[in-house]
Amino acid sequence: MDTIKMTRELGKVIQADERFALYHKAKELNDADTELQETIGEFNLTRQKLAMEANQPGDFKDQSKIEALNKEAQAVYARIMENPNMARFTEAKNAFDAMINDISRIITLCCEGEDPETCEYELPEKGCASGGGCSGCGRH
Question: Is residue 138 a contact partner of residue 94, using CB atoms and an 8 Å limit?
Protein backbone atom coordinates (compact mmCIF):
# COMPACT_ATOMS: atom_id res chain seq x y z
CA MET A 1 0.00 0.00 0.00
CA ASP A 2 1.42 3.37 -1.04
CA THR A 3 1.09 5.84 1.85
CA ILE A 4 1.28 8.88 -0.45
CA LYS A 5 -1.52 7.50 -2.62
CA MET A 6 -3.63 6.80 0.48
CA THR A 7 -2.93 10.31 1.78
CA ARG A 8 -4.17 11.75 -1.51
CA GLU A 9 -7.31 9.62 -1.12
CA LEU A 10 -7.76 11.05 2.38
CA GLY A 11 -7.45 14.54 0.85
CA LYS A 12 -10.28 13.70 -1.57
CA VAL A 13 -12.44 12.46 1.31
CA ILE A 14 -11.76 15.63 3.28
CA GLN A 15 -12.71 17.77 0.27
CA ALA A 16 -15.93 15.78 -0.15
CA ASP A 17 -16.93 16.40 3.48
CA GLU A 18 -19.73 18.92 4.08
CA ARG A 19 -17.58 20.78 6.64
CA PHE A 20 -14.99 21.49 3.94
CA ALA A 21 -17.65 22.86 1.60
CA LEU A 22 -19.27 25.00 4.30
CA TYR A 23 -15.91 26.42 5.39
CA HIS A 24 -14.87 27.36 1.85
CA LYS A 25 -18.29 28.83 1.01
CA ALA A 26 -18.19 30.93 4.20
CA LYS A 27 -14.67 32.08 3.31
CA GLU A 28 -15.84 33.15 -0.16
CA LEU A 29 -18.75 35.10 1.38
CA ASN A 30 -16.33 36.84 3.76
CA ASP A 31 -13.97 37.72 0.93
CA ALA A 32 -16.85 39.14 -1.15
CA ASP A 33 -18.28 41.21 1.73
CA THR A 34 -16.73 44.62 1.02
CA GLU A 35 -18.07 46.17 4.23
CA LEU A 36 -16.53 43.36 6.27
CA GLN A 37 -13.22 43.64 4.42
CA GLU A 38 -13.13 47.40 5.00
CA THR A 39 -13.83 46.87 8.70
CA ILE A 40 -11.05 44.27 8.90
CA GLY A 41 -8.73 46.79 7.22
CA GLU A 42 -9.78 49.42 9.76
CA PHE A 43 -9.07 46.97 12.58
CA ASN A 44 -5.62 46.13 11.20
CA LEU A 45 -4.74 49.81 10.82
CA THR A 46 -5.89 50.55 14.38
CA ARG A 47 -3.89 47.60 15.66
CA GLN A 48 -0.78 48.88 13.85
CA LYS A 49 -1.22 52.33 15.38
CA LEU A 50 -1.64 50.72 18.80
CA ALA A 51 1.52 48.64 18.37
CA MET A 52 3.51 51.67 17.24
CA GLU A 53 2.36 53.70 20.21
CA ALA A 54 2.94 50.86 22.67
CA ASN A 55 6.51 50.39 21.34
CA GLN A 56 7.49 54.03 21.90
CA PRO A 57 10.32 54.56 24.39
CA GLY A 58 9.11 55.19 27.93
CA ASP A 59 9.24 59.01 27.87
CA PHE A 60 7.41 59.20 24.52
CA LYS A 61 4.72 56.64 25.30
CA ASP A 62 1.26 58.22 25.64
CA GLN A 63 -0.80 55.94 27.88
CA SER A 64 -4.07 57.78 27.19
CA LYS A 65 -3.52 57.36 23.45
CA ILE A 66 -2.77 53.65 23.97
CA GLU A 67 -5.99 53.23 25.95
CA ALA A 68 -8.02 55.09 23.32
CA LEU A 69 -6.55 52.99 20.49
CA ASN A 70 -7.18 49.83 22.48
CA LYS A 71 -10.84 50.78 22.98
CA GLU A 72 -11.14 51.66 19.29
CA ALA A 73 -9.62 48.29 18.29
CA GLN A 74 -12.03 46.45 20.61
CA ALA A 75 -15.02 48.31 19.15
CA VAL A 76 -13.97 47.58 15.56
CA TYR A 77 -13.33 43.93 16.45
CA ALA A 78 -16.83 43.70 17.94
CA ARG A 79 -18.28 45.05 14.67
CA ILE A 80 -16.34 42.41 12.74
CA MET A 81 -17.61 39.60 14.93
CA GLU A 82 -21.22 40.84 14.70
CA ASN A 83 -21.15 40.58 10.91
CA PRO A 84 -23.37 37.63 9.83
CA ASN A 85 -20.79 36.44 7.28
CA MET A 86 -18.07 36.42 9.93
CA ALA A 87 -20.35 34.53 12.32
CA ARG A 88 -20.99 31.86 9.66
CA PHE A 89 -17.30 31.74 8.82
CA THR A 90 -16.26 31.33 12.46
CA GLU A 91 -18.76 28.50 13.00
CA ALA A 92 -17.76 26.73 9.77
CA LYS A 93 -14.04 27.16 10.47
CA ASN A 94 -14.40 25.77 13.99
CA ALA A 95 -16.22 22.69 12.67
CA PHE A 96 -13.66 22.15 9.89
CA ASP A 97 -10.73 22.68 12.28
CA ALA A 98 -12.23 20.17 14.73
CA MET A 99 -12.41 17.58 11.94
CA ILE A 100 -8.79 18.23 10.92
CA ASN A 101 -7.70 18.04 14.58
CA ASP A 102 -9.45 14.67 14.92
CA ILE A 103 -7.74 13.37 11.78
CA SER A 104 -4.37 14.65 12.94
CA ARG A 105 -4.84 13.10 16.38
CA ILE A 106 -5.65 9.69 14.86
CA ILE A 107 -2.59 9.87 12.60
CA THR A 108 -0.40 10.88 15.55
CA LEU A 109 -1.73 8.06 17.72
CA CYS A 110 -1.14 5.55 14.91
CA CYS A 111 2.43 6.81 14.51
CA GLU A 112 2.88 6.19 18.22
CA GLY A 113 1.81 2.58 17.74
CA GLU A 114 -1.86 2.77 18.69
CA ASP A 115 -4.36 0.52 16.93
CA PRO A 116 -5.90 2.55 14.05
CA GLU A 117 -9.27 0.84 14.59
CA THR A 118 -9.58 1.63 18.27
CA CYS A 119 -7.42 4.63 19.14
CA GLU A 120 -9.33 7.38 20.86
CA TYR A 121 -9.02 10.70 19.09
CA GLU A 122 -11.31 12.76 21.31
CA LEU A 123 -9.47 14.97 23.75
CA PRO A 124 -10.40 14.37 27.38
CA GLU A 125 -13.17 16.58 28.71
CA LYS A 126 -10.91 17.76 31.52
CA GLY A 127 -7.62 19.09 30.35
CA CYS A 128 -5.70 18.72 27.16
CA ALA A 129 -2.96 16.34 26.18
CA SER A 130 -0.88 19.31 25.00
CA GLY A 131 -1.29 21.12 28.32
CA GLY A 132 -2.30 24.30 26.50
CA GLY A 133 -5.42 26.37 26.59
CA CYS A 134 -8.53 25.69 24.52
CA SER A 135 -8.41 28.90 22.48
CA GLY A 136 -6.59 27.40 19.50
CA CYS A 137 -8.19 23.98 19.62
CA GLY A 138 -11.43 24.61 17.75
CA ARG A 139 -13.19 22.03 19.94
CA HIS A 140 -14.64 24.29 22.59
Answer: yes
CB 136, CB 97: distance < 8 Å: no
pLDDT in tens, 36-84: 999 999 999 999 999 999 999 988 889 999 999 999 999 999 999 999 9
Are the C-beta atoms of 96 and 21 separated by less than 8 Å?
no
| Span 90-101, average pLDDT | 96
C-alpha gyration radius of the chain: 21
Mean pLDDT of 85-106: 96
Query: Do the Cβ atoms of 56 and 126 come closer than 8 Å?
Result: no
3-17 core/surface letters (b: 16 or more CB in 10 A; e: else): eeeeeeeeeeeeeee
CA nearest to 19, candidates 121, 105, 88 = 88
Q: Please tell me the predicted confidence (pLDDT) of residue 45.
A: 98
In degrees rounded to 5, what are phi and psi of residue 32?
-85, -15
Angle (deg, nearest 10), helices 18-32 and 3-16: 60
Spatial separation of the C-alpha atoms in residues 74 and 59, rounded to whole Å: 26
* Contact (Cβ atoms closer than 8 angstroms) between residue 26 and residue 63: no
